[in-house]
Amino acid sequence: MPIPRLIIPVEEDQLLRILWDDDLLADYPLSYLRGWCPCAACQGHSGERHFIKADNPQLSAINMVGNYALSPRWTDGHETGIYTFEYLRTLSEQLASENAAKG
User: pLDDT (tens digit, 9 = 90+) per residue, 75-96?
Assistant: First the structure.
């Protein structure tokens, strides 16, 4: 599984940019990341993931969790989402597919 080589919050574009060690450069809009928060408070315990709309999400910090995940802290106080590297790559692929479908 690829791991992030560089993690850059880009405030003016409202996104998180990750350069992966396999040279994939992925941009994650903050609204997309916050909306797909994987924590149980956002997703429940059913195993089915769904998008949670958040108004104007802003990062206040982002921390590494071991060698396998990132944990963002949002300015609304939410900080329980642990985004594994595998999950972030899935979100990147999902976002690319959605953008391709839009044309």
Answer: 999 999 999 999 999 999 999 8
Sign of CA dihedral 40, 44, 47, 53: negative
Tell me the residue type at 68: Y
Residue-range definition of the domain harbouring residue 31: 4-102
Under the banding of pLDDT at 50, 70 and 90, the label for residue 47 is confident
Give this prediction's pTM: 0.91
Q: Tell me the three state secondary structure of residue 24.
A: coil
With a CB cutoff of 8 Å and minimum separation 6, the contacts of 57 are 30, 31, 33, 34, 74, 75, 76
Query: How many domains in the chain?
Result: 1
List the CATH number of the domain containing 86: 3.30.2020.30
